[in-house]
């Protein structure tokens, strides 16, 4: 029987909506939980709305609704899909991939391959785009799966935050380290390690220096070979645009995508987030 393959991900991928629509990527939303309200990420609430409410209430975040996931699988089966490649946020940061894996066992007559990206934002998103583009070339399920794994091995993500407050409150970094960082005005360049967990790439004092260090980090990558690059921000539109202009003056950029971080990511990073994703195209 002829394969019909769907590409699936979650709302932390930060892929611009027009690209999601172009390739028919299936996106399951994580959830944002306030004391008396629940929102689906990017559907019922925007990052700007989350930032506006942060001084009054810091919400918690939650995995996708099992009902949403099962409904998506049922819809794919009804539309004749035979295979799903589901690529999700790092298991070191969320239980989403494990949830999808567990639910996939309830579905018959649909081959579902769940891949832990060990990444976040457009580090996840660009991998999903690569999968969708490979699929559009009429590549097989197995060929696309192998391409995803090869792409993930090359993907690098770096970001700076306006404040360490929200990572600290969310338990993503130690409270002592977070408080000390605030006092010293440290603006570390954060990356995701091979286990898919936040780690410090460089320690810098002050916002301007952190942005310059972020640029220098990407410049080093671009000096080696042709790369695809993505810039994502949360409440840092002007700085993101400035970074775009600086990058355009460099060579070795095959493609440059810009976007906005999801509300779920915004809960944990706060306003002033600026991230860069880079990977070689060879």
Q: Give the H and E element order.
A: EHEEEHEHEHEHHEHHEEHEHEHE
What's the tally of helices? 11
Under CATH at level 1, the class of the largest domain stands as: Alpha Beta
What is the 3D form? globular
Ranges where pLDDT stays below 50 over 5 or more residues in a row are 174-184
Please name the CATH architecture of the largest domain: 2-Layer Sandwich
Strand order of the largest sheet: 10-9-8-13-11-12
Biggest pleated-sheet summary: 6 strands, mixed
User: How many strand segments?
Assistant: 13
Mean pLDDT: 90
Q: How widely separated are the two ends?
A: 33 Å
* Beta-strand percent range: 15-25%
Q: What is the CATH topology of the largest domain?
A: Hypothetical Protein Tm841, Chain: A,domain 3
Give the count of structural domains. 2
Estimated helix fraction: 40-55%
Query: Which structural class best describes the helix and strand composition?
Result: alpha/beta
Explain this structure to me?
The protein is α/β, with parallel strands linked by helices and 282 residues long. The chain has two domains: 5-29 and 64-154, Rossmann fold; 156-280, 2-Layer Sandwich (Hypothetical Protein Tm841, Chain: A,domain 3). The protein contains eleven helices and 13 strands. Strands 10-9-8-13-11-12 form a six-stranded mixed beta sheet, with helices on both faces. A four-stranded parallel beta sheet has the order 2-1-6-7, with helices on both faces. The protein has a three-stranded antiparallel beta sheet with strand order 4-3-5, covered by helices on one side. Helix 3 (66-78) packs across helix 4. The model is unreliable at 174-184 (pLDDT under 50).
């Amino acid at each position: 029987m002829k394969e019909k393959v769907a590409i699936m991900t979650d709302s932390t991928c930060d892929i611009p909506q027009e690209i999601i629509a172009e390739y028919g990527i299936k996106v399951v939303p994580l959830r944002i939980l306030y004391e008396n309200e629940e929102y689906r990420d990017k559907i019922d609430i925007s990052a700007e709305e989350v930032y506006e409410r942060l001084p009054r209430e810091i919400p918690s975040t939650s995995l996708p609704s099992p009902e949403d996931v099962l409904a998506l699988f049922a819809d794919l089966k009804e539309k004749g899909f035979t295979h799903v490649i589901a690529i999700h946020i790092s298991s070191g940061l969320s239980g989403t991939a494990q949830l999808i894996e567990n639910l996939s066992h309830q579905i018959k007559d649909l081959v579902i391959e769940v891949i832990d990206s060990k990444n976040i934002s457009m580090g996840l998103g660009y991998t999903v785009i690569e999968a969708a583009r490979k699929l559009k070339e009429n590549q097989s399920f197995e060929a696309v799966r192998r391409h995803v794994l090869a792409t993930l091995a090359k993907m690098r993500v770096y970001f700076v935050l306006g404040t360490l407050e929200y990572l600290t409150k969310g338990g993503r970094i130690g409270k002592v380290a977070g408080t000390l960082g605030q006092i010293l005005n440290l603006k570390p360049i954060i990356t995701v390690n091979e286990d898919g967990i936040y780690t410090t790439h460089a320690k810098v004092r002050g916002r301007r220096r952190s942005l310059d260090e972020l640029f220098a980090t990407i410049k080093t990558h671009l000096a080696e070979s042709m790369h695809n690059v993505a810039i994502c921000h949360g409440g840092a539109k002007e700085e993101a645009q400035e970074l775009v202009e600086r990058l355009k003056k460099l060579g070795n950029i095959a493609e440059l995508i810009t976007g906005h971080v999801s509300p779920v990511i915004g809960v944990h990073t706060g306003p002033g987030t600026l991230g860069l994703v880079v990977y070689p195209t060879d």
